[in-house]
Amino acid sequence: MSLEIRNLHVRTEEREILHGVDLKVSPGEIHALMGPNGSGKSTLANTIMGNPSYEVTEGSILLDGDDLTEADPDDRARAGLFMAFQYPASIPGVSVANFLRTAMNAHREEAIKVKDFGQLLKRNMELLRIDPEFTKRYLNEGFSGGEKKRAEILQMAMLEPRIAVLDETDSGLDIDALRVVADGVNALQGPERGTLIITHYTRILGYVKPEFVHIMLDGRIVREGGPELADELEDKGYDFVREGVGAGAG
Prior knowledge:
By secondary structure, the protein is of the alpha/beta class. It has one domain: 3-Layer(aba) Sandwich (Rossmann fold), CATH 3.40.50.300. The chain has a 6-stranded mixed beta sheet, sandwiched between helices. Strands 2-1-4-5 form a 4-stranded antiparallel beta sheet, covered by helices on one side. Helix 3 runs parallel beside helix 5 and helix 5 runs parallel beside helix 6. The relative contact order is 0.18.
């Protein structure tokens, strides 16, 4: 089940942010989308998931050939898309476990049995090395940045999406929290899932190895390559990409 973005143009508040983005993520692949702040990375992530604040004016979003460009966010999630947010919301009074069970049931025609849910939750917590007490806490209430991201990765494990979009999951994490998140992503990656990691730092890519790297500037993907492109970016910064784009334009 491939996610395919074709010639995507997106605007908000009368300003076009994306200017013809093409991208394809297939099962078993890890892609990194990199770019400085304001380049359009999070706009792309939100548009993929159907955030109504972003208007698609041209192009399409396809999942396994089905056009989801106008689909509601719930329908996209049921189809197999998942997004880990940069700033996950807190839900006081709702435990992590209850939130996860509700999220799972929203994807199913028949509610999961309590026993089956408990067994699946236990397996995933063991896989991700999460303390069982964690799921009794209210979702993201008083959580550290690392705990919020861990809750997102646990949600991904329980929902088993076909395509996972991680929007700056490494933002604001210390090195220990970053390793926990990266270990979780690696543990959940497999031949049935494609992953798109959106970041402006290369540090998470030291733990999660992408096969494809895309660099976005000013709402366009301007360079693509393998993992060596991220290494080059680490050495030279985004200026070398801007200079290359300028030279190409000339």
